[in-house]
Every structure is written in structure tokens, then in C-alpha cells.
């Protein structure tokens, strides 16, 4: 399954060394993207312009939301289903997903976590579809 | 036989209630009056407040628990732990808080904490023995938040009491709430002024 660096938007295939060690840009937070949503995510990533500062803020907020330590060495993977972060301070929650009770963060392997959060772009891309 | 069953049932209910382990959750959308109702209950039976209330949404961003509240009605006693939860929303935008006069940084922080609060509220749902859903009777009850909360409580078989709050306001329409959720008891109250609060306490005995 593909992963996308939250900081620099680079996409990585599953099993890429960067997902385990951190992105080449230094980012350690990745969105986990389902294969069928990859094209949509790529397009959305191109259309969304967030400043470096905003991205950093989102990273900080996500770490705090799920109670993970930002200074940890191992990267954190986000699953993009329950929470969308459009930009810092703007959240959209998918209650149906949240009520399903799937954990927001779960350990995949030692030092590698998966967090159930939704990417920031879904809303923008759905707006695009409406037009 | 039925008679003995009833006696046994009452006995166990009494033992259970005496332990004070019954968790009664207050759930609902933001600014419906959950904390105002929690304060009303705590003031009436403990003589103290539970939490702060505000006109700006998402004032309660952490789960609040008040243990061992005992209410009395017609010689009966009911003990429970009251759990006040952060309001559940589908969209939390710091710009709304800025419109209410907050500074940007504080507004963004409030949005983040409110988001975490929604996650916590939902996580705690399975721990509840009974839930009071507090709705603002001046607002349209057919919202995604209301329907999702009530639907999930039903699926989890958690007993539910609906409260149509803010009945002191002219725009309040209890009929709309009753029509939206006909399978539930709806009690119209004003948590702020204590109107019809006795009906609410009576309904709690039925609920728990």
C-alpha cells in the first residue's frame, strides 16, 4: 500500500525503506493511502497548497491528538478514514468511522504505529467533483 | 414465579445501584446544554457545580466524571456516576471560534482539543450503562450527529433518554424532537432555569 509523506507529499510504495526510517526530507509522519484512492490523493496533493509552517503545525497537532511522541525516531503512519485535517485548526470527523470503534492508533510492529486519520484533501477533491 | 423473579430483579438492581457503579453519560452535539444539565444535577443533589459553561461551542473538551450522585424520588434512591462528555461534531473549525472573539492561536488549540474530545466521547460510549442525549430543542433534530449518536446507542443496546433542552426559549419545539425520534421518551426541560427538571429525574429512575 502506498504512503505519502505529510511534509513533502512524496509518495512511497509499501515496504519502502523511507517508511521505516523516515522520509528523505526528514519527515516521520506518513499518510497511508488505499490503492483505489491513490489517484485521487495524487491529484489532491497537487492542488492543495499548504505552507511548510502549516504542515509542521498539522504534524504537531496529529502527534498530540493521538498521544504519540513527535521526537520518536520511528515514523508514524496515518490511515486516512476518520479525521480530515484541512489545515491547522480545521477538522472534519467521519462519525460513522469513529463509532465503528477502530483504534485511531495501533502498533504494526515495534516502533511503527498506524493512526486512523483522514487526509486533508478529501474535502477539496469532493468539492471539485461537485463542480 | 413471576413474583419471585421481580423480587430477585429488584434485589439485584438495588445491590447494583448501591455500589454506585452505574455510569450515566451525557451525550450530544456541542452547545446543547450537557454541562448546564450536569451542573443542574450536581447543584440539586451535591450542592456544587460540575464544569464551566460557555456560549462558545466545545467548552467541555475533556470527559468529566462526578462520582456517587444519589437522587431521590418518592422514597426511592438512585445512585450513579455522572459522565459529562465533550460535544460530538462532524466539523470543527477554528474560524468559528475567532468569530466569537477568540485569538487565532487559542482558537486553533480549542479546535484541536475539541477534536480529541470527540474521539474520547466516542471511545467512552461502550462504558456507559445508560445515556441521556441532550439536544437543543431550538435546532433541527434531524442532524447527522444526532442520528449517528442515537443510532449507535441503539445498536449497542444502551438505554437512552432524550432531553429536549432550552425549552425556555421561544424557538424551542419539543414536538419536532419527538417526531424525529418517536421510539424514545423525550423530556422537555430548561437545564438553565430548572424547568420541568422533576420530570427528568423521574425519567432517570425509569431509564437506569
Helix content of chain B: 40-55%
Question: SSE order of chain A in H/E notation?
Answer: EEHEHHEEHEEH
Percentage of residues in helical conformation of chain A: 25-40%
CATH architecture label name of chain B: 3-Layer(aba) Sandwich
Care to count the β-strands of chain A?
A: 7
The number of E-state strands of chain B comes to: 7
Class by helix and strand content of chain A? alpha/beta
The number of helical runs of chain A is 5
Q: What is the radius of gyration of chain A?
A: 14 Å
Radius of gyration of chain B: 17 Å
| SSE string of chain B, helices as H and strands as E | HEHEEEHHEHEHEH
Mean pLDDT of chain A: 68
What would you note in describing this structure?
The complex is a heterodimer of chains A (131) and B (208). Chain A has 131 residues and is an alpha/beta fold. Chain A has one domain (3-130). Chain A has helices spanning 17-21, 38-47, 52-66, 95-99, 122-130, and strands spanning 3-5, 11-12, 29-32, 76-87, 90-93, 105-109, 112-118. In chain A, strands 1, 2, 3, 4, 5, 6 and 7 form a 7-stranded mixed sheet that branches. In chain A, strand 6 and strand 7 form a beta hairpin. Chain B has one domain (19-207): 3-Layer(aba) Sandwich (Rossmann fold), CATH 3.40.50. In chain B, helix 6 links the parallel strand 6 (160-165) and strand 7. The longest helix of chain B has 21 residues, at 104-124. The two termini of chain B are 24 Å apart. The mean pLDDT of chain B is 91. The chains are: A alpha/beta (131), B alpha/beta (208).
Question: Topology, pairings included?
Answer:
The complex is a heterodimer of chains A (131) and B (208).
Chain A: E1 3-5, E2 11-12, H1 17-21, E3 29-32, H2 38-47, H3 52-66, E4 76-87, E5 90-93, H4 95-99, E6 105-109, E7 112-118, H5 122-130
Parallel strand pairs in A: 3-4, 4-7
Antiparallel strand pairs in A: 1-2, 1-3, 4-5, 6-7
Chain B: H1 2-18, E1 23-27, H2 34-45, E2 64-73, E3 76-84, E4 91-93, H3 94-99, H4 104-124, E5 130-136, H5 144-155, E6 160-165, H6 174-180, E7 186-188, H7 197-207
Parallel strand pairs in B: 1-3, 1-5, 5-6, 6-7
Antiparallel strand pairs in B: 2-3
Amino acid at each position: 500500500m502506498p504512503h505519502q509523506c505529510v511534509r513533502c507529499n512524496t509518495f512511497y510504495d509499501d515496504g519502502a525503506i523511507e517508511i521505516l526510517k523516515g522520509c528523505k526530507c526528514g519527515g516521520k509522519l506518513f499518510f497511508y493511502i488505499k490503492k483505489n484512492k491513490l489517484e485521487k490523493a495524487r491529484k489532491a496533493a497537487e492542488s492543495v497548497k499548504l505552507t511548510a509552517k502549516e504542515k509542521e503545525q498539522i504534524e504537531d497537532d496529529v502527534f498530540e491528538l493521538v498521544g504519540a511522541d513527535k521526537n520518536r525516531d520511528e515514523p508514524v503512519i496515518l490511515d486516512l478514514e476518520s479525521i480530515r485535517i484541512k489545515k491547522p485548526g480545521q477538522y472534519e470527523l467521519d462519525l460513522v468511522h469513529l463509532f465503528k470503534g477502530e483504534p485511531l492508533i495501533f502498533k504494526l510492529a515495534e516502533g511503527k504505529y498506524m493512526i486512523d486519520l483522514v487526509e486533508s484533501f478529501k474535502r477539496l477533491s469532493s468539492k471539485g467533483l461537485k463542480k | 414465579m413471576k413474583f419471585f423473579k421481580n423480587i430477585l430483579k429488584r434485589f439485584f438492581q438495588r445491590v447494583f445501584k448501591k455500589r454506585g457503579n452505574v455510569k450515566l453519560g451525557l451525550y450530544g452535539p456541542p452547545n446543547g446544554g450537557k454541562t448546564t444539565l450536569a451542573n443542574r444535577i450536581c447543584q440539586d443533589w451535591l450542592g456544587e457545580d460540575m464544569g464551566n459553561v460557555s456560549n462558545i461551542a466545545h467548552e467541555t473538551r475533556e470527559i468529566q466524571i462526578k462520582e456517587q450522585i444519589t437522587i431521590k424520588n418518592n422514597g426511592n434512591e438512585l445512585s450513579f456516576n455522572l459522565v459529562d462528555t465533550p460535544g460530538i461534531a462532524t466539523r470543527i473549525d477554528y474560524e468559528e471560534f475567532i468569530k466569537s472573539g477568540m485569538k487565532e492561536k487559542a482558537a486553533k488549540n480549542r479546535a484541536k482539543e475539541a477534536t480529541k474530545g470527540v474521539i474520547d466521547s466516542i471511545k467512552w460510549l461502550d462504558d456507559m450503562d445508560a445515556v441521556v442525549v441532550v439536544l437543543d430543542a431550538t435546532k433541527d433534530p434531524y442532524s447527522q450527529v444526532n442520528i449517528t449518536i442515537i443510532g449507535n446507542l441503539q445498536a449497542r443496546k444502551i438505554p437512552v433518554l432524550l432531553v429536549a433542552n432550552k425549552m425556555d426559549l421561544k424557538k424551542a419545539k419539543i414536538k419536532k424532537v419527538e417526531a424525529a425520534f418517536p421510539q424514545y421518551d423525550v423530556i422537555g426541560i430548561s437545564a438553565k432555569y430548572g424547568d420541568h427538571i422533576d420530570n427528568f429525574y423521574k425519567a432517570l429512575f425509569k431509564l437506569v
